[in-house]
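User: Design a sequence. Structure:
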């Protein structure tokens, strides 16, 4: 099973690299998840401008984008952030937590699964710091 990090989800929705597109389509959809933590990050990025424009005519553009985004996100299975993931997160050292709250929680979510899910990310070094399994499906391997 695979868990897409937030940056990977953004790429899939906006402009996937050919390598990423090929890897995604090669895996059954039932094996690909996004994290509820990543969904939160994406929604925060959309809701901020929507809120800032809520009293202007531009709000319609923001609501339209939000509606499209929700539809796009619904094609993915969403992996919960539960007590097991939080326990793993709490076990991370302060050094590991410097990677960032969201990335650490995404990693913890992947690590809490049995068997552990593989995080799909371009930020391999950050996720390896947490101990999570990870792969880069964005950039093709050097040949």
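Assistant: Done.
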């Amino acid at each position: 099973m695979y868990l897409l990090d937030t940056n990977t989800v953004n790429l899939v929705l906006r402009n996937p690299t050919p390598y990423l597109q090929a890897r995604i389509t090669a895996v059954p959809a039932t094996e690909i998840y996004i994290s509820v933590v990543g969904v939160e990050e994406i929604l925060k990025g959309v809701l901020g401008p929507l809120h800032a424009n809520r009293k202007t005519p531009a709000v319609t553009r923001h609501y339209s984008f939000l509606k499209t985004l929700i539809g796009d996100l619904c094609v993915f299975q969403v992996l919960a952030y539960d007590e097991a993931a939080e326990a793993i997160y709490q076990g991370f050292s302060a050094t590991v937590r410097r990677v960032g709250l969201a990335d650490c929680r995404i990693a913890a979510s992947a690590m809490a699964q049995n068997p552990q899910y593989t995080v799909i990310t371009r930020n391999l070094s950050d996720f390896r710091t947490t101990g999570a399994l990870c792969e880069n499906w964005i950039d093709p391997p050097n040949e």
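The chain has one domain: 2-135. The first strand starts at residue 2 and ends at 4.
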